[in-house]
């Protein structure tokens, strides 16, 4: 394949990943604006634990927030980690996010304090952190190991968020989001192409 074609494909992936993440973050801000304008009507789609009727809210909860400060806190890490995870393959990225959202949401539903409501994209932030951290080792790709090391350097301190040190923050969402990201790294790992045996006579 000509080098120009390879470079062009790389640029297209970078552009597509950037567009997806910018659109995602814009959606989060738009949803919060709608929530504020409606008197916090969207907050009802947060997760209330161990209520079977709340199980569908496992999905939308990762796209909703409790105030603009909450959205702002998640915006930059989501942009950075999401871009790094999406730039290679958007279809894989969609699957990874789905695993993180469901795993993190179900973890919150099972373990959060009674009568609480949990929402926020930090489930995805922690999940993408976990995914990027282990992906290179799972796929045995030196470039991705280097990306994981960079992510650990930039955002390693967020691991404190999986500990129950702040009653106003869902450590359950952080912990199970992180676990979902590690799970996704294994579920969506590179699989070697099957090699046909060749014999000579």
Automatic annotation (TrEMBL):
It is found in: Membrane. GO terms for molecular function: peptidase activity. The keyword Iron-sulfur does not apply. It comes from the Bacteria. Its main location: membrane. The keyword Magnesium does not apply. Keywords: Hydrolase, Membrane, Protease, Transmembrane, Transmembrane helix. The chain crosses the membrane at residues 63-86, 93-112, 118-138, 145-163, 169-188. It is a multi-pass membrane protein. Residues 57-189 form the Peptidase S54 rhomboid domain. InterPro entries: Peptidase_S54_rhomboid_dom, Rhomboid-like_sf, Rhomboid_protease_S54. GO terms for biological process: proteolysis. This is Rhomboid family intramembrane serine protease. It comes from Streptomyces meridianus. The lineage of its organism: Bacteria, Bacillati, Actinomycetota, Actinomycetes, Kitasatosporales.
């Amino acid at each position: 394949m000509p080098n120009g074609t390879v470079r062009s494909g790389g640029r297209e992936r970078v552009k597509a990943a950037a567009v997806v993440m910018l659109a995602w973050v814009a959606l989060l801000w738009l949803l919060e604006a709608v929530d504020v304008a409606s008197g916090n009507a969207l907050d009802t789609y947060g997760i209330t634990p161990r209520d079977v009727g709340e199980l569908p809210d496992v999905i939308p909860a990762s796209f909703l927030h409790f105030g603009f400060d909450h959205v702002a806190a998640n915006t930059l890490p989501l942009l950075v980690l999401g871009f790094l995870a999406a730039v290679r393959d958007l279809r894989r990225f969609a699957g990874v996010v789905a695993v993180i959202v469901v795993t993190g949401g179900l973890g919150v539903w099972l373990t959060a304090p009674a009568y609480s409501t949990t929402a926020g994209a930090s489930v995805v932030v922690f999940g993408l952190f976990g995914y990027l951290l282990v992906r290179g080792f799972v796929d045995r790709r030196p470039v991705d190991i280097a990306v994981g090391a960079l992510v650990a350097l930039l955002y390693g301190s967020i691991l404190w968020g999986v500990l129950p040190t702040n009653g106003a923050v869902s450590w359950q969402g952080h912990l199970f989001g992180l676990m979902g990201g590690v799970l996704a790294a294994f579920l969506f790992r590179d699989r070697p192409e099957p090699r046909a045996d060749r014999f000579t006579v």
